[in-house]
Amino acid sequence: MYEQISHSLLNSILDDLKPEIRRQDLRHFYTRLGANFYAIHSLFSTLYGHRDDFKLQMLRLVETMAKGYIDRSPELERLDIQREQDHNWFLSQKWVGMALYSNGFAENLADLENKIGYFQELGINMVHIMPILMCPNGQSDGGYAISDFRQIDDRVGDLEDIRRIAKEFRKRDILLVLDIVLNHTSDEHEWAQKAKMGNRSFQNYYYIFENRETPDMFEQSMPEVFPETDPSNFTWNVEMEKWVMTVFHNYQWDLNYSNPSVFIEMLDIIMFWANQGVDVLRLDAVAFLWKKIGTSCQNERNAHLILQLMKDCCQVSAPGVLFIAEAIVAPIEVIKYFGEDAIAAKECEIAYNATLMALIWDGIATKNTKLLYQGIKNLPNKLERATWLNYVRCHDDIGLGFDDSDIRLAGYEPRAHRKFLVDYLSGKFDGSSSRGLVFMPNEATGDARICGSLASLAGLESALETADEGLIAYAINRILLMHAIILSFGGIPLIYNGDAIAVLNDYSYIDDPSKTDDNRWVHRPKINWEKADLRKQQGTVEHTVFNATKKMIAVRKEISAFADFNNRELIHLENKHLLCFIRFNHQLPSEKVLVIANFDANPQDLYLESLITIGFNIDSKFVDLYSGMKPEQCDSRITLQGYQFYWLTET
Ligand code: OTU
User: Fold this and answer.
1) How far, in Å, is the centroid of ligand 1 from the Cα of 468?
2) What is the mean predicted confidence (pLDDT) over 397-413?
3) 1, 82, 390, 649: which has the highest count of C-beta atoms within 10 A?
4) In 383-445, at which residue ranges do the beta strands (DSSP E only) sit?
5) For ligand 1, is residue 328 a contact (CB within 6 Å)?
6) Is 327 in the pocket of ligand 1 (CB under 6 A)?
7) Whose CA is nearest to atom 13 of ligand 1?
8) Averaged over 54-80, what is the pLDDT?
9) Residue 244: its pLDDT value, please?
């Protein structure tokens, strides 16, 4: 948009740019800067316009973008332009992701490079390598406490490794995803060190207070993220003799985005990684970016403005790079991280679908889909050019963040139902085969979360102990059922390290002092590659799970109706054990795929008359795209065995 105040400011900034910037060929940069400058200026002045040095900060911002653009390789710039032309590229069903720790999946980054073949074998073409930046020895929150945003931790490798991996991935059409931890740094980061030494400018990078007055005001309305190990949101620092805001662990200092220098530094870091060839940046804990007394300090409007500004600036220098919002918050709040009142995403193009994840686990525990329906029904419609990251497990705990009113509408009492889920998933409930661990129980609120690997939570660990073939088959089918849903729901499925070969809980963290008080480590295993090789041996659990997952991935990629264009319709059924939705090809709506999943251990029937309103009739004949077989169909009903799913199309 052309607007005179911002345009004249832009002209004067361009005059003031450093000569080395002016000398470059910045054609593409300038057209994009022109397009976004009005928005950038409005956002920057809403956040920082009250400051005397506003114009100087604005100049620094433009310089940072220009530098980001100048440092971009011709190859990456070509990719930017290609993605600009094919702007819906990431909505395609051909993307299938995997998240892993480089030193869990492999020994380190160099070894990960040797294992790229595994991704191709399974069909993975988007790989999220969990935090690899420099972090303290000992406790580092699995790498989420970063002490240098531009260095790779030497325990896993160096910059050369990641550049090679990025290149290798690009050759094979695999997207590289890395984390940017925007919300906090480790207390060993240079900024924190300088702050500790009394440097005021760096103290202003954080929330630091002389006494308890302001912290106490904040605490009144701030929840606790890790109540068991890190209650309270502030930590006393002995060097400064001051209080520091530490929402996560006491060694993770929250960055203060009311300071424009923090914003510009982080933007520079985003550009740095974009220019190493990272395709997608996972922005950690975005809900927490803005703190305001009297609020929960999550999902604040200014947190959204910061993300919009990040996106607008990143589009100018590296428009092909996408953002993932990691905001594990209520659906109505998550949806805002795509950006409001827009068509194309204006904050993050992709967001974690934590709601679906938790709902799927509810279905497994209750063996019915009452809450699943309620929750999916209330999942707000997302923007056209934005997509979900659908997952069953990740490196974090499972939070039971359902809406209380949804729980009631499904016929349960919220507190009792959450307690049931925790008991079920931790195996305490009579008849439960789950082997989860309770994470961060909060006495005061009664809340608790769950850890555990997909396979152990799905009952495989306990089934293997009894060696009961029937129970083993149930557990395997539950794993496949859950993967079938994330692969067909709409969005990018993200399979977690080890889950395609049914890796069980790993209890070795208990003996490691830096991990023992954080049971999320139970599901962050080191892959045993000898055992993983069993995926090639028929009759093993690894073989069954791996091959079924591989097949599902391959089939998904061929089904255009599985691309994500808001092309899903939930089908309500009488049978409470079934989940049923229809996916249609957005360009050819007559091309439909019916997804049906049975969450019960017993066979369940789907009556075709319930599909009449959506264009099928009781004589419709189907074929299951996954197995290539006709489903069990008789007298206008289709039968699903315990934990079976179908991807049906009419023949
Ligand atoms: C994220 O987590 C990361 O995924 C966690 O591994 C980190 O501990 C945390 O940030 C701090 O960097 O912030 O938006 O287990 O679900 O803290 C949600 C708790 C987050 C996580 C939650 C989450």
Assistant:
1) 37
2) 94
3) 390
4) 387-391, 437-439
5) yes
6) yes
7) 285
8) 97
9) 98
Query: CA 406 to CA 372: how far, in whole Å?
Result: 9
Mean pLDDT confidence for 136-153: 96
**CA–CA separation, 523 and 499 (whole Å):** 10
Nearest 5°: the CA angle 345, 387, 166 is: 90
d(CA 124, CA 9): 46
Residues marked active site are found at: 284, 326
How much distance in Å is there from the Cα of 243 to the middle of ligand 1?
A: 22
Cα–Cα distance list, 123 to 110, 545, 581, 625 (Å) = 21, 14, 25, 17
Q: Which residue's CA is minimally distant from atom 5 of ligand 1?
A: 396
Q: What percent of the chain has pLDDT over 90?
A: 91
Distances in Å between the Cα of 249 and the Cα atoms of 137, 185, 253, 537 are 15, 11, 8, 43
Cα 301 to averaged position of ligand 1 atoms, centre (Å):
20
CB of 131 closer than 6 angstroms to any ligand 1 atom: no
Cβ contacts of residue 229 below 8 Å, gap of 6+? 249, 440, 517, 518
The stretch 216-225 carries a mean pLDDT of 96
Ligand 1 pocket, residue 141 CB under 6 Å:
yes
Give the Cα separation of 72 and 276 in Å (integer).
8
Q: Over the chain, what is the mean pLDDT?
A: 96
Distance 425 CA to ligand 1 centre (A): 20
The atom number, within ligand 1, closest to the CA of 287 reads 14
Residue 54 has a CB neighbour count (10 Å cut-off) of 16
Strand arrangement, sheet containing 208-209: 208-209, 242-245, 234-237
| CB-side neighbour CA atoms (13 Å) of 44 | 28
**CA quadruple 27, 28, 31, 32: dihedral sign:** negative
Q: DSSP code of 618?
A: T
Which atom of ligand 1 has the smallest separation from the CA of 396? 15
Q: Take atom 21 of ligand 1 and give the residue whose Cα is closest.
A: 396
In short, whether 357's Cβ falls inside 6 Å of ligand 1 is no
208 C-alpha to center of ligand 1: Å?
22
Query: Which residue reads 């009739």 in tokens?
Result: 617
What is the distance in A from the centroid of ligand 1 to the CA of 524?
14
Q: Does residue 495's CB lie within 6 angstroms of at least one atom of ligand 1?
A: no
- The phi, psi pair for 230, rounded to 5°, reads -135, 60
Give the contacts of 499 (CB within 8 A, at least 6 positions apart). 392, 393, 453, 454, 455, 479, 483
99-108 pLDDT, tens digit each: 999 999 999 9
At 635 the pLDDT is: 86
> Residue 440 carries which side chain, given as an amino acid letter?
M
**Residue 148: what pLDDT?**
98
Cβ(638) to ligand 1 under 6 A?
Answer: no
In this prediction, residue 393 has a pLDDT band, given cuts at 50, 70 and 90, of very high
Q: What are 231-253's pLDDT values in tens digits?
A: 999 999 999 999 999 999 999 99
Tokens 């729980």 belong to which residue?
Answer: 407
pLDDT at 343 over 90: no
pLDDT value, residue 355: 95
**Radius of gyration for the alpha carbons in the chain, expressed in angstroms and rounded:** 25
Residue 396 Cβ inside 6 Å of ligand 1? The answer reads yes
- The pLDDT tens digits of the residues spanning 520-530 come to 999 999 999 99
